Amino acid sequence: MAKITFDGIEIEIPDGTTIMNAARTVGGSIVPPAMCYYTPLKGSGGKCRACLVKVTAGSTKDPRPMPKLVPSCITSVQDGMVVENTVNQQVLDVRKGIVEMLLINHPLDCPVCDQAGECDLQNFAFEHGVSTTRYTEERRTFDKIDIGPLIQLHMTRCILCYRCVYTANQIAGDRVHGVLGRGDAAEIGTYIENIIDQDFSGNVIDVCPVGALTDKTWRFKQRVWFTKPVNAHRDCPKCSGNVLLWYKGKDVLRVTARKDEYGEVKEWICNECRFEKKETSDWTIEGPAHIDRSSVISANHYELPVLNHSVVADLPESTQRELEKNPPLKLGS
Ligand code: SF4
Ligand code: FES
Questions:
Q1: Dihedral angle, C-alpha 283, 227, 124, 120, nearest 10 °
Q2: Which CDD domains match (predicted)?
């Protein structure tokens, strides 16, 4: 076991754990943001630099600070390590720069992007970025590539996190797409217009942190914050069949895998569940889903927010009377 100090909090974790996962054992706002690391995908991390932290003491044996900021998702802890994240101004300033760099080529087309509301880059920019840009050059553009009837690729939105490449490699089998070219010319593409049609290829949509890979069957149908996520399952011979159904009224507009608080897929789902089962009768409904990651989709669903009694006591009397008469919220203790 190694003892480390993270933002002043002492954590004891098994040797070999990454700094990121050590912080996740504490949770909350001290956890560094991640745009490319994805726990279920071997080899992910180390691409986006969103998770950089300052190591002010390397270990008990060698307590010198590490000279540069380190990516917390691929740096292992050592006994006696002292790490600073939210308490270090250099880290916060660099993070602003990372947002700026990621947005150099990413189009600001959130109003028409299907990922809006559940986009990691949108959340990252909101929490860590600045509201102005110094960039006046032309953004990169790409020839459109059709990667099949189910998945839409918008290469201009891609931040080259490689998550989809690892997913295609490790989950879908028969990988036919990957990163072509290098440096400024790097892009996600398929060779000789191969169509991505393996049973589990739809999972690339769930892992993509931005709107570069989206579900064609859900495209432009609805803003995600107007839909209601519901847990459901079916007896599927190919996958666990545990999914989220996204309802608008009585219609299931899309089906996705369930995700944890870090936006990581809990269980991969097959294309049949994702693209072909869009009727309520296809599913056993479990109930409203709790979305616990910080996003606009955490609001406006079927679950009632808990309003603390002490909060109610601070409201104007007329509002309190109105709440009592017509309680729109579940009152907590
Ligand atoms: S398409 Fe999405 S998942 Fe794939 S590398 Fe680009 S940003 Fe990452
Ligand atoms: S999340 Fe660590 S480098 Fe991308």
A1: 30
A2: fer2 (cd00207)
